[in-house]
Amino acid sequence: MLMMLAAGCTPPEDRQALDRAVDRAESAPRIMSVEQEDRLLAEERDLPTATRIGQWARRFLDADGVEYLFGLKEGGYVAEGDLVRDDRQDCVSLMYRVTELARADNHRDAVVLALRTRFAGAPLDSVVDDRGRVDYDRPEHLDFSLDMIRSGNWGQDVTTGLTGAAPDSAGSSRYPAGSFTVIPGTALVGDELAEGDIIWLVLDPDHPAGGKLRRKYGLVIGHIGIVIVEDGKPWLVHAASSDLEGWYEGGTVVSVPLSVYLDRVERYSAVVVTRF
What pLDDT is attached to residue 9? Predict the structure, then answer.
C-alpha cells in the first residue's frame, strides 16, 4: 500500500482521504515542527530501524508537555480520531507513533505507515472522514495486543528465541492456554534485549486485577513499552498513568530499568518481545 500510494496507483478517493489525514496530522500538536521532523527523518534514513526506534523513544522521553491520556477517554487519540497527537499519549499510541516515525522518510510517509498498519487492508476513504479523522471502530483495527503481535506489523515476535521462553499456561477467555509463548519476568536475560525492542507486558493470571482482565475481557497483554539500552542494561520507555515510587512520577512518558518495573509492578509477570 505504501508503494502504491507513493506511485499514485490508488483510486482518487483514497488519495484524497490520505491528503485529509496528512492535513489533520500536520496541524496536530507535535514534539517538534514538521520541518524539524522531516530533517531528522532524512538525516537518519539509513540507520537501522531499531536504532531509529530508540532515537524517537528518547525524543518523546525528553519532550516537554507530553501527558498521559488513555486513548478512549475524552480528548484521547481514539476518541478524537487522531493519528498524530504527540502531546497526549498512552502506551499504544506511543508505540504506534515511535515505530511509524522510525520507518518513515518524511512526515507524510509516517501518516501512510499509520494508516497501513493501524488499519491494515482497509480502503482509506472508509477510514478517514471529511475532516481527516480516522475511525478506530473499523473492523480492520486490531483491539487486542496479542493480535497486533501476530500481525507482524509491529516487529517480528522473537520471544521463542530468548532464554526462559515457555508457553503461557493460563490463557484467557479469548486465547487458549499454550497458544502463545512468553518469558517470565524472573527468567528474562536483559543482555538478550536490544535497543528498539518492543516489550509487551503480560498480565499475571494470579494477580486479582490481571486475572480479571484475562477472564472477563480476554486480555493477555496489559501494557506496552520500548527498550532503550543505558550502560548495557535495558530500560523501559513507556507512557505511565501512575507513579512508581522512587523512580518517576506518572502522567507522562517515563523510563525505568525493565528489571525494576517487572519486580515492582505485580500486575505483570511475563513479557513478549517483538523486534524490527
Answer: 59
Rounded CA-CA distance 36/63 in Å is 14
Closest CA to 206 of 271, 267, 272, 144: 267
- Give the number of other Cβ atoms within 10 Å of residue 147's Cβ: 13
Q: Bridge-partner residues for 199, per DSSP?
A: 225, 273
* Residue 8 pLDDT greater than 90, yes or no: no
Can you tell me whether residue 213 is helix, strand or coil? helix
Q: How far apart are CA 216 and CA 19, in angstroms?
A: 40
Dist CA 245 CA 224 (whole Å): 20
The CATH architecture one would assign to domain 145-275 is Roll (2.30)
Give the pTM. Answer: 0.95
Residue 3 has pLDDT above 60, yes or no: no
Map out the domains of the chain as residue ranges: 2-127, 145-275
Residue 69 has pLDDT above 80, yes or no: yes
**Sequence-distant contacts of 59-66: CB under 8 A, at least 24 apart:** 59/31, 59/32, 60/31, 60/86, 60/89, 60/94, 60/97, 60/98, 60/237, 60/253, 61/228, 61/237, 61/253, 61/254, 61/255, 63/31, 63/253, 66/31, 66/252, 66/253
What's the average model confidence in pLDDT over 159-186?
Answer: 97
User: Residue 52: which of 96, 125, 101, 107 has the closest Cα?
Assistant: 101
3-class DSSP state of 189: coil
